[in-house]
Write a structure and sequence with these properties.
The complex is a heterotrimer.
Chain A lengths: L3 E12 L2 E13 L4 E5 L6 H8 L7 E6 L2 E2 L5 H11 E4 L11 H6 L9 H14 L15 H13 L5 E5 L7 H16 L4 E5 L3 H6 L2 E6 L2 E6 L4
Parallel strand pairs in A: 3-8, 3-9, 6-7, 7-8
Antiparallel strand pairs in A: 1-2, 1-4, 4-5, 9-10
Helix pairs in contact in A: 4-5, 5-6
Chain B lengths: L4 H10 L1 H35 L4 E6 L10 E2 H8 L14 E12 L8 E9 L3 H4 L4 E5 L8 E5 H6 L8 E4 L2 E10 L9 E4 H4 L7 E2 L1 E5 L6 H10 L5 E5 H8 L1 H36 L1 H10 L3 H27 L6 E6 L4 E6 L4 H28 L2 H4 L2
Parallel strand pairs in B: 4-9, 6-8
Antiparallel strand pairs in B: 1-11, 1-12, 2-10, 3-4, 3-11, 5-8, 6-9, 7-8, 13-14
Helix pairs in contact in B: 1-11, 2-8, 2-9, 2-11, 2-12, 9-12, 11-12
Chain C lengths: L3 H10 L1 H31 L7 E6 L7 E2 L2 H6 L4 E9 L13 E4 L1 H7 L3 E2 L2 H9 L3 E5 H7 L6 E6 L4 E13 L9 E4 H8 L4 E2 L1 E6 L5 H12 L6 E5 H9 L5 H30 L1 H10 L3 H33 L15 H28 L2 H6 L3
Parallel strand pairs in C: 4-9, 6-8
Antiparallel strand pairs in C: 1-11, 1-12, 2-10, 3-4, 3-11, 5-8, 6-9, 7-8
Helix pairs in contact in C: 1-12, 2-10, 2-12, 2-13, 10-13, 12-13
The chains are: A alpha/beta, B alpha+beta, C alpha+beta.
Chain lengths: 229, 388, 380
């Protein structure tokens, strides 16, 4: 059973007086434990697809099922706790709340659980250690480099042990060295910890870390590479 | 509260100038609110203290103030003999018939057109015991048969010639000031007191304006009232002293309060608009942060609450500023004419803890109102849009 | 100004903020104008009074009466053309929620003394003819719905009992100094009801020449100095002025609040302007890159501030002026002639200008001085 099922999805939105069709009849699956990269030129709808999977956006038509739940028909009120439990999301930038320390940022998803302070503390430390930034726990985002910020964002994305980790252009703003650190981390999350990961990227090198690559162009799936394991 | 308060607190500190301006605006409204109500409060309190629950005040039937009343000696005697009147330790009835007139006096330092109508009250010995909260703080009570007067301390502050030993001129005569008295901050402190028999020939002849007495049984006031008002020999209205004076403060007190509410309401709208602006700007600037919170799975309700609380927090800071601005006003003495009695009354601004609490609550309401629509917008922001 | 459309576009970009800020300025200036008008109205009432009328009341105090026999003696004083008198009645009507003055007057001499009390001739004659008749001010018709021929019952407080009068005339004041909500009834009716010889509350005399006022006043007071009731005579203006001071230090109170109000809007407007400025850095940079001069940008920001301040002022000040005129507001009789003066409007406009400078100056200077390169590099 695939973890993510996208069926006959249409998505369009209004820009002024124009109606822009992003997808028409898009159908694809993502398997559990996979590491998938979504690639394509700008305007191809890859970020939109990620948002649909996370329940941040809703298709004009069609269904999106994630971990058995029909995300496309849930209300915002239902989606919030669902997302807290199942999704870890990393944006391209501005992931962290500037007024909170790295520790406090990573803590945020755990505040939505019933864990005690001690239990939360344990998990935060583990997550930060995983991304190699335990010693920067008390630093504010402005005191971290771009790469470090992204790694803290990843720590936050995995701290509550979500079903799915989604990243939108995670290395877009980073230099080669920091990008490599991030990608290495993601590989480890997938291989060692069996996390299902979907990243959106236009960077071919980043896509090489993934095991499945989906190419989108003008809202259509045009190619699929790699084994579906 | 799911979203940590520390997020709000620190975010507020990130925009210090904006926050300060908004808080200050709210603070000003709270200060004016407290100040004006303290004025009304002080006025009402001064009058309330004038009367006691234990006393009854008798005026001629239909008179609405001591000024317009007239009670002759015969009536006064009948009242003194009533079984409803308490007896003092000296065995005499605790009853005080009094003359009440108004005289024009020029205030200290002002030009002669600035006249105030000051109460001149004729008293007997019993007045010092029957009327409430009285204490002579300088000099000695007027001696019988002499043209001597006693002045209330608030009156002494505001009018020249009122120190012990000085002379006041009114009613075509000179009067020596022989003492000053306090009365617990009540209206009596704005009055000039002297012997009934000295005032009668000068002013209105052999007639009192009021008779005040201590009730033998304060709980049986209604009975006393009925008995005296239905007595065929008398044509009087009997009031409970405390209630009578409280009613004398109604008109002006109400006017001051209405003015307070009107003025602060308009000011509050201005302050709320300021808060709305600030919060909208905050929400707009923090779009990406809101996106993160919503994406993480915080319920839109939590986001709404978070911004509402932030707004209320800023407002509460403003409330505290307002309180600090208004506190020094407490105790300042001012005066006006109580139109109900046409007489000048001096009183102090009175800030109570209740008023301060009301001020804070007012601030919180302003903050919540101001923050509502921006917070609503924050909560309903589609994540996709928030990221832009 | 050919860049006006850019300024307007900026204001229009954040319609809500512009609206809220302008509304704040309008409200605050409305309040300012209202508060100041209380002070100016009271000051104006202190100026009320004809220069040719003197008022004599009892030197002991206004609450003490004067004998009616003084009337003839007053007429005999050189320089006195006419004499009349009035008595304060001080009754209550209905639930007493709306206070209005009632006076017992000598009908013919009082109306002759006060031509400003304008009554249609037939109504005047009815008042002269009928003993229990009364004249009412035009405003009482609006307030209580009274009409000609109506019986009105007042509860006496100083003079106990129920007093019923028939409305035979409605007067219109031709001068702001006369209240439009008085009830005047006849002195002979008053005496008859009381059953004892009448008295006068105070006398009003008309003199031949305003310049003789001080001299005539002194003559009158000297005449009665050693009588049963000594008098204190002064111009009608002085008499009215003393009532205005009874409120106490109103101007201080209103002034303090007014200051707080003005300060509060200053904060709100400055805040709004600053927020706009911060968001506009990038745009300012682009305009400069295109070639707009520093001075032009300075002017544009100031114009934006001016737009808000002056629009708000027009609405707030103009609104106050119109509102009080249209509703004929007089604070239930306590503030007759309540009207926003030109001076108040000018002062309000000056505050608006000050507002414009204070809130616009800093952002304007910043915009003018902004180094282009730095602005373009900022991640907004």
């Amino acid at each position: 059973m695939p973890l993510v099922e996208i069926r006959e999805v249409n998505k369009s939105f209004q820009r002024g007086s124009e109606k822009i069709e992003v997808f028409t009849g898009l159908t694809l699956d993502v398997d559990e434990g996979s590491f998938t990269a979504l690639m394509g030129p700008s305007g191809s709808g890859k970020s939109t697809l990620l948002n649909l999977v996370a329940g941040l956006d809703r298709p004009t038509q069609g269904t999106v099922r994630v971990a058995g739940a029909e995300v496309s028909s849930m209300t915002p009120g239902q989606l919030a706790p669902w997302r807290a439990r199942h999704i870890g999301f990393v944006f391209q930038q501005l992931n962290l709340l500037p007024v909170l320390t790295a520790y406090q940022n990573v803590e945020l998803p755990l505040l939505l659980t019933r864990l005690s302070r001690k239990e939360r503390d344990e998990r935060i430390r583990i997550a930060l250690a995983l991304v190699g930034l335990e010693d920067r726990m008390l630093h504010y985002p402005r005191q971290l480099s771009g790469g470090q910020e992204q790694r803290v964002s990843i720590a936050r994305a995995v701290v509550a042990d979500p079903t799915l980790v989604l990243l939108d252009e995670p290395t877009g703003q980073l230099d080669a060295r920091s990008s490599e650190d991030v990608l290495q981390l993601l590989r480890r999350l997938n291989e060692e910890f069996k996390k299902t990961i979907i990243i959106v990227t236009h960077d071919v090198h980043a896509a090489e870390s993934a095991r499945t690559v989906l190419h989108l162009d003008k809202g259509r799936l045009i190619e699929r590479q790699g084994a579906a394991v | 509260m799911k979203i940590p308060l520390i997020y709000n607190a620190r975010s507020v500190l990130q925009r210090p100038v904006s926050t300060a301006l908004t808080a200050l605006g709210i603070g000003l409204v709270v200060a004016v609110f407290i100040g004006m109500l303290a004025l009304a409060n002080g006025f009402r309190a001064a009058l309330r203290r004038t009367g006691s629950d234990q006393n009854a005040l008798v005026l001629r039937r239909g008179a609405d103030s001591e000024l317009s009343s007239g009670i002759d000696r015969a009536t006064a005697s009948i009242l003194a003999a009533s079984p409803h009147v308490a007896t003092g330790p000296d065995g005499r009835p605790m009853v005080s018939p009094e003359v009440y007139v108004l005289i024009p006096l020029s205030r200290r330092g002002a030009d002669t057109t600035s006249v105030a109508n000051v109460v001149v009250r004729g008293i007997g010995e019993a007045a010092w015991k029957v009327r409430s909260n009285l204490q002579i703080v300088a000099g000695a009570p007027p001696k019988s048969g002499r043209a001597e007067v006693c002045v209330g301390t608030k009156m002494a502050l505001r009018f020249p010639g009122t120190d012990v030993g000085q002379m006041l001129r009114f009613g075509g005569r000179d009067w020596t000031v022989v003492c000053q008295f306090t009365a617990g901050g009540s209206a009596f402190e704005s009055e000039i007191w002297g012997e009934n028999e000295q005032f009668m020939p000068v002013f209105r002849g052999e007639v009192f304006q009021s008779v005040s007495f201590r009730l033998r049984d304060p709980a049986a006031f209604e009975e006393a009232k009925r008995a005296l008002e239905s007595d065929q020999r008398l044509t009087v209205d009997v009031h409970r002293e405390s209630q009578f004076y409280a009613e004398q403060s109604q008109v002006l007190g109400r006017i001051l309060e209405i003015l307070a509410f009107l003025i602060t309401s308009i000011m509050a709208v201005v302050a709320v608009f300021g808060a709305v602006n600030t919060m909208y700007a905050a929400v707009a600037a923090r779009g990406p942060e809101i996106a993160v919170l919503l994406t993480l799975g915080f319920h839109p309700r939590s986001v709404l609450l978070s911004f509402l609380i932030e707004s209320a927090l800023i407002a509460l800071v403003g409330g505290v500023i307002g309180i600090l601005l208004a506190l020094p006003i407490n105790g300042i003495v001012t005066s006006t004419t109580n139109w109900a009695s046409f007489s000048e009354i001096a009183f102090s601004f009175r800030v109570t803890p209740g008023l301060l609490m009301a001020g804070l609550a007012f601030a919180a309401v302003m903050g919540t109102l101001g923050g509502f629509f921006p917070a609503w917008r924050a909560a309903r922001m589609p994540v996709v849009q928030a990221l832009r | 100004m050919k860049f006006l459309h850019l300024v307007l576009a900026n204001l229009g970009r954040h319609k809500r903020r512009t609206f809220l800020t302008t509304a704040s300025v309008a409200l605050a200036l409305f309040l300012f104008a209202s508060l100041r008008t209380v002070v100016t109205t009271l000051a104006a009432t202190a100026q009320f009074g004809s220069a040719r009328r003197l008022v004599s009341d009892n030197a002991t105090g206004i609450v003490f009466p004067l004998p009616l026999s003084y009337a003839n003696k007053l007429r005999a004083v050189p320089g006195v053309q006419a004499v009349s008198w009035a008595n304060w009645f001080g009754g209550r009507y209905g639930d007493n929620k709306r206070f209005f003055a009632q006076f017992a007057v000598d009908p013919e001499s009082y109306l002759e003394m006060y031509p400003e009390i304008s009554v249609p001739e037939d109504q005047k004659q009815a008042f002269f003819r009928e003993k229990s008749s009364a004249l009412i001010g035009r405003r009482l018709v609006d307030v209580f719905g009274w009409h000609l021929g109506q019986d009105v019952t007042i509860q006496g407080t100083i003079f106990p009992g129920d007093w019923t009068f028939t409305v035979r005339g409605i007067y219109t004041p031709t001068d702001a100094s006369i209240n439009d909500d008085m009830l005047l009834f006849r002195h002979d009716y008053f005496e008859e009801r009381l059953g004892r010889p009448g008295v006068a509350g105070w006398y009003v005399v008309r003199i031949d020449n305003p310049e003789h006022a001080a001299g005539i006043a002194k003559t009158i007071d000297d005449q009665f100095r050693n009588s049963s009731a000594a008098t204190k005579t002064g111009t009608e203006q002085a008499f009215n002025a003393s009532f205005a001071t009874m409120w106490g230090n109103v101007s201080l109170l209103m002034g303090t609040i007014g200051f707080a109000v003005v300060f509060a809007i200053l904060l709100v407007t400055a805040n709004a302007m600053m927020m706009s400025a911060r968001e506009r850095t990038r745009e300012v940079a682009i305009l400069k890159t295109i070639g707009f001069t520093d001075r032009t940008l300075f002017g544009m920001v100031m114009l934006e501030a001016a737009g808000i301040a002056l629009t708000g002022a027009a609405i707030g000040l103009g609104g106050a002026k119109l509102l009080y005129q249209a509703t004929n507001f007089n604070a239930a009789g306590f503030l007759p002639g309540f009207d926003v003066t030109a001076e108040t409007l000018v002062l309000g406009a000056a505050i608006a200008l000050l507002l414009m400078l204070a809130s616009g100056l800093v952002p304007a200077v910043r915009a003018a001085r902004l180094p282009v390169v730095q602005a373009l590099r900022r991640v907004e």
